[in-house]
Amino acid sequence: MTQTKQRVAIMYGGKADEHSISCISTASVLRALDAERFEPVLIGITRDGVWIVDGEDPRAWDLAAGLPSVEQVPGSRPVVLDMSQGGDGFYARNADGTLESLGHIDVVFPVLHGPNGEDGTIQGLFEMLGVPYVGCGVLASAASMDKHYTKVLLDNAGIAVANGITLDTRAFDADTQFAAQGETLLNMVEEAGLQYPLFVKPSRAGSSFGVTKVDRAGDAVSGAAQLAAAVYEAAQHDWRVLVEQGVDAREIECAVLCPVAGQPVQASLPGEIVLDRRAEGDDQFYDFDSKYMDKQASHVEVPAHLPEDVLERVRETAIKAFKAVDGMGLSRVDSFVTADGDVIVNEINTMPGFTSISMYPKAWEASGLPYGELITTLIEGAIESGAQR
């Protein structure tokens, strides 16, 4: 008897800055997908937010060839949803205006990063449709996407976070107005007792977009100008901006997995992104180029070269943080580990990268769960969790 394949709507692209990383992650997911169990239904989202099917096949995308993008091409069709039909409510609009069913969708795997993909908005849509989906729910997605509110929840749960302040930049959204705020910003930093270097970052963005390291140099005037420029850069990605005190520590990442809601949460061996140019004296931090574009800039080590008790503390903290934001499915918890072994949580990524060089799948592979089995576990867990609702 032939077993019916479960149909998985794999969504990728989107309006966020991380559009291309979503595309590359999707290529990796599709190559690893168990073709005997699952039938993928590919739904791309253009940078303008248009959902399409019959676009370019993501399997051909490779980061070495450049950053891909979801585009409307000849033959591609827009996707239309009928909210009343649940998993049967996915349609494509033909050129003549008629609607053609995409067939029943058993589960959605939103390989989407950033705003409109990882922030609870599309998760709420799936909840309204009544369709199971891979990943965290609305609350965890929204709270973890916003670094300010992540810190609020973690601090309330007794988990250490970096010292910092949060700015609302909507009142000064022009170049000259930002420059004029430099002295005020500098005073706020000093009043908060923050130590340099500072990291200025948008509250709701990923892949280090809009992040600037600020070393206090020169007099107060130049320091104020440098800080204002960093806040302006972050504000291009989000009006809510964090100014955080740099932590003298190693950056350690831990993959968390809870495929079925209510089951025990698992944590992988923690890994470390080693910035290779720091050994050469370069004042490097983990920006977008170091993550994805420059293969000589960094490499992954799993497990991180830390004492066993510290590694276990990182895992325990990652699980505690995941629970604090009401996590489900998966997340990657990024922490700072000081020379004294203290663990400070930096952020939580509810849909981490799934590229061939991404920490999340690498950490689980090193922990004994191969990439393909990880994908299967996530999809089947989402279906089981959906059936429990």
Automatic annotation (TrEMBL):
Binding site for Mg(2+) 1: 334, 347
EC class of the enzyme, as a word: ligase
The keyword Cell wall biogenesis/degradation belongs to this UniProt entry's keyword annotation: yes
Annotated catalysed reactions: 2 D-alanine + ATP = D-alanyl-D-alanine + ADP + phosphate + H(+)
Gene Ontology CC annotation, any one: cytosol
Its EC number(s): 6.3.2.4
Official protein name in the record: D-alanine--D-alanine ligase
Claim: Iron is one of the keywords in the record: no
GO biological process: cell wall organization; peptidoglycan biosynthetic process; regulation of cell shape
Pathway: Cell wall biogenesis; peptidoglycan biosynthesis
GO molecular function: ATP binding; D-alanine-D-alanine ligase activity; metal ion binding
Pfam families the UniProt entry points to: Dala_Dala_lig_C, Dala_Dala_lig_N
UniProt entry keywords in alphabetical sequence: ATP-binding, Cell shape, Cell wall biogenesis/degradation, Cytoplasm, Ligase, Magnesium, Manganese, Metal-binding, Nucleotide-binding, Peptidoglycan synthesis
Binding site for Mg(2+) 2: 347, 349
Organism: Bifidobacterium gallicum DSM 20093 = LMG 11596
Cofactor: Mg(2+); Mn(2+)
Domain ATP-grasp: 151-380
